[in-house]
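We modelled the chain as a single entity of 371 amino acids. Its sequence is:
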Amino acid sequence: MKSFYTFVLLVVVLATFQLGGCTRTIDPPPPGGVYRSESAGASFDQSVNIKNMPGEYVARFNLREIFRLPGNPDIIYIAAGENGIITSEDGGKEWRVIETPLTFATDVVVLENGVIVAAGTDGSGQGFVVRSLDKGESWNSVFTIPVPVEDKGIQIVGGADVRPSVVISIEIDPFNPGRIYGGSSLGTLFIAEQSGKTWRTLFTLRSDNAIQATNEITGVARLLPSPHVPGELIIITTDNRLLKIANNTQQEIEIPQYISTPAPVFGSNQTQEALDVAYIPGFPEALFVGVETGAVVTRDLGQSWVELPVPIEATERFNTIQVDVSPTNVNRMFVVVNEVIYRSEDGGVSWNTFSLGLPQHTIVDFSINPA
């Protein structure tokens, strides 16, 4: 099964419910919310109903990254901005809203012991992490996000004269189910122990850009713990760089502008922007990367690259791109550009295309059920 969410989805047929002997008309869901596939991604249907709330739909919510419960991938959680968190226990067929003390929820994970950890902001924009031990019935604040000082990297608690730092991405350590990694909008990486109870700073990203203004800070757009090497993290930054963090060091993985075609005499040192990344199961040094021109693969952590022949229109403008690989079939690959899904069943040699038919909207995350 494949399921992901986007800001837009198909409009369904008008439905009616019998209430107290009269007929109540239920409006169809607006574009937005979640698409769901039971055909290995060949086609998708909207799935946005909220349990016990006829006429209310998650299509109206500001949905973000998808999280599947370890050991039971049919249980799904999604941070839903100002609406808190939504969860499904049936693989995304129906949803339930969980309220949080956050004004805006940016990401959520659920540990194997049932502890829910959510990141977001309060009314002033200050970043917080909260935790629930009772499936979202009550919450405790466990971390106020500090702000990095750019000159020496010393961590201080943000004051009124600095921009608040917000945790954008949180992920569970594949090698330690009680440990969580977090990445902030101002480029700080955090690590949490004891099921999200205690937090500390792990690393602060460097810009490594001599041209960049001194007041610019590189933030974390996507954080991905390695399933192959303990403690290794892959980062997509807000300035679209691909970084590997390991042993308290930062290494940039550069993607050349010219891979399948010869580089011109001038500009041969140009690199491409990285927009999304996925590990390839079973291959520790392989990465699948969404770039500004489509998708590329490296089998040696960036020493060499292969450009995939994804049939994207040369004139198409990218708002978003997502890449993913099936955890049980490495030949099944997905590239999602705006609201179009490209699927390969032969390791990226050939591609099939499925469009949601909603050109004004974009898909913001894509999740494959490992079962």
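As a brief sanity check on the tokenised model: Residues 334 and 343 are 5 Å apart (CA to CA). The first strand starts at residue 2 and ends at 6.
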